[in-house]
Amino acid sequence: MKTKGNGIDIRLLRDLPEYAPILAFWSYREWYMERDITFDVVLKAYKARASGTSVPLSFCAVTRALPVGMVSLKRDDLWNRKDLNPWLASLYVVPEFRNRGIAGSLMQAVITEAAGLGLDTLYLFLGRPEINKLRDYYVKRGWVFFDHGTDNDGGATEIYSYSLSGKGR
Question: 39: helix, coil or strand?
Answer without folding.
Answer: helix
